[in-house]
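Below is a filled-in request sheet from our internal design queue. Each sheet records the structural input a requester submitted and the sequence that came back. We keep these sheets so that new team members can see what a complete request looks like end to end.

REQUESTER: design group, bay 2
PRIORITY: normal
MODE: inverse folding
CHAIN LENGTH: 315
BACKBONE (tokenized):
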């Protein structure tokens, strides 16, 4: 199929913009070429609708971004292309070549609510079982006990990595099965603890923390080998090292797995919002598709008209 040539208007305005980037903005040739490719890619879509870059609408921008997304283009690449379009239309607006910037209300891919992938329940169970086995051997050291307790809290309580690092001994109320957590904006919330997390914390407090503690008596719950509080980076590295073979687990992925598995087992979004410490229910609503998937499964299993037609059955 013969390639559709660019309208002269598009070619001319892109060329003029490239001169502006090189001469007035002082951008490097490679950067200018990347911007040119992004603009020409967008121009091709606009031209399919017999349009020009100068008259493109917000709908054209949305269609372009959705097309990229549907072809599994990474969010970072989409954000770069949108940035190129923003710069181009801002230049047109400032130069009074257009009256309205079609990109002004378009959301950046960084603000799209995309639910990160969670682990399967069996993967989490294997990860925690392995850490638990290392913590329960007769000669387990303080590090093994500490790491098991951290992993149980990350998954069992859905804590953020910063919340793990800032927990204090007095924040735990193991007799009532809960912990007081300080989240974003120094907001406090009560997080319920399951039996596995309670047992791991009890063993760490009784046998592990005294081994790591030094004379200065840190109030922080989780300590390093020199008795100092753990850093976020250290917790990330520990979780990565404990990941099942073939996976790359992060503290954040364990938190998302906690929420996902709760919703799959019937928890309502308000309860998950409270547990995770989301200020706005809209943040928790990324898990709606999990609830919908579970609802579809229940419908297929239990509704008399919900079951699929067996393979090979007549219609």
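RETURNED SEQUENCE:
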């Amino acid at each position: 199929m013969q390639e559709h040539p660019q309208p002269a208007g598009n070619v001319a305005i892109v060329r003029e913009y490239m001169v502006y980037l090189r001469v007035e903005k002082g951008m490097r040739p490679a950067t200018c070429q990347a911007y040119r490719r992004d603009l020409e890619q967008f121009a091709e879509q606009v031209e399919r609708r017999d349009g020009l870059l100068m008259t493109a609408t917000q709908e054209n921008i949305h269609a372009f971004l959705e097309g990229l997304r549907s072809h599994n283009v990474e969010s970072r690449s989409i954000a770069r292309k949108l940035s190129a379009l923003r710069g181009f239309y801002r230049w047109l607006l400032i130069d009074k070549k257009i009256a309205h910037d079609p990109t002004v209300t378009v959301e950046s891919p960084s603000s799209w609510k995309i639910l990160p992938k969670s682990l399967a329940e069996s993967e989490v169970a294997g990860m925690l079982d392995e850490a638990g086995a290392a913590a329960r051997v007769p000669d387990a050291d303080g590090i093994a006990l500490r790491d098991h307790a951290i992993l149980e809290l990350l998954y069992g309580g859905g804590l953020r990595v910063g919340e793990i690092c800032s927990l204090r001994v007095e924040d735990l109320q193991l007799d009532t099965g809960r912990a007081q957590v300080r989240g974003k904006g120094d907001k406090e919330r009560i997080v319920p603890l399951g039996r596995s997390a309670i047992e791991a914390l009890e063993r760490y407090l009784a046998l592990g923390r005294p081994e790591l503690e030094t004379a200065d008596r840190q109030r922080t719950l989780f300590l390093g080998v020199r008795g100092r509080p753990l850093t976020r980076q250290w917790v990330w590295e520990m979780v990565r090292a404990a990941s099942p073979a073939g996976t790359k687990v992060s503290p954040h992925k364990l938190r998302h797995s906690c929420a996902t598995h709760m919703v799959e087992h019937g928890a309502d979004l308000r309860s998950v919002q409270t547990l995770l410490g989301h200020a706005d229910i809209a943040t928790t609503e990324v898990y709606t598709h999990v609830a919908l998937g579970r609802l579809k499964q229940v419908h297929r299993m239990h509704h008399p008209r919900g079951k699929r037609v067996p393979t090979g059955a007549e219609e």
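SHEET NOTES:
- Residues 29-48 form the longest helix (20 residues).
- The two ends are 41 Å apart (CA to CA).
FILED BY: M.R.
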